[in-house]
Fold this protein.
Amino acid sequence: MTILLTLFNILFWVILIALAGLFILVFAGLKRRKRDRALKLLDSFNVTLEWEDGTRRTGVMRALGDSVMLTFDDAPQTSTTWLHYAPEWDLVTGVYRFNDNLNEHDLSRRMAQVKALQKAASLPKQAHPGKWLDKIADQALAVWAGLTRRPFPEPAYRAVTTDTQHLLAGYAGDAHNALLEMLLGKAVVVQHVARGRIHQRSGVLLAYSHRFLFLVNVPVLQIITIKFEQGDKEDQHLNLKWRWQNNQLEIRNLGLFPLLLDQILVGDVVRDLSMMIEPNSAFSLHIKRPARENVRLIARIMREADIVLPRNKAVVRFGVKASGQLPLLDIARLLPTSAASEDEEQRLRRELKQHPLNPAAAATLARQLVEKGRISEAERFYEMALSDARHLPDKGQRVQLELSYLRFDQRGEGEKTS
């Protein structure tokens, strides 16, 4: 009897210690989960937060558990601190660390950070004890979700529908994901939903959390509109430098990536350009500058950035062996088609009906059709533009580049059968 009692006491204490140890591991995993490690990577860096409505705010970010602080210059000699809480993350489409916004000190910090993450990604995947804590926390939350009949991960996934297909647009909630673990340190293409469009971001996946993905060396196409005021002679916006002299508008690309020029608007008159300027190159356009009409240039500037993307708005679609094999251009899809997009398509079709040999209009229309998922028709208009490429300002360089990336994108999605 005494032996049985002793064995019972030993068993009781073993179970109690095991439960206490399990509780400690679960608590440690949940605490690790609360300090979002993907977001923490941008702590103390100059970043740009972007929201679903297109609003952007740039400042120095501090990651504080379930919230962030953004400090920026609101006015001369005035610094403002802005708070963003975790329940508001559904409104955020991305956090961008643009390399051209960093000073020398921050660039060296970034380089050291990226090297450390690349080294960690090359180690055996189970070497870090934090991975086990993530798994334990995930399982504990899954058990709790089963007991309380709540879905886990939350949100498990987000689906969207385009004009032509149904897509998974986000999957979030697990702090340890076997597929993402396999892709750490590798070049990937990510589908990302933002402001009514499905974008494609290409870069190197270096970290993730239950809420975010962290990618580095991501080319980001930023659409800008430059308004030329009367009396302006020259100016610079990011890596686009311009000078106007004797009805000649010279545009110089000071960046490391191609500069894409879409349109120039003189009053209500639209002139499609559909051209590209190579890095460290310039191009001159002959435009008679009117005395009273406003002149605007619509361009796409490519900037390199490290990005934190919300996982409930992003899905890793595929990876490649080297980042040099990834597309630079963003193949975007509209969700759904907007009235403004329809009006622009009709304008271009009218232009082509009146001037069938307008390759710039054909290329612009092809770009519109790509956004709507009408790929076969888009390819036809791209080829139409290339058939008369000598009349394009850049002799068809941009059109050829976009068509190549479109076909790369189609290979990534796979062949479709009827």
Residues 414-418 have pLDDT under 50 and may be disordered. The radius of gyration is 26 Å. The domain at 221-306 is CATH 2.60.40 (Immunoglobulin-like).
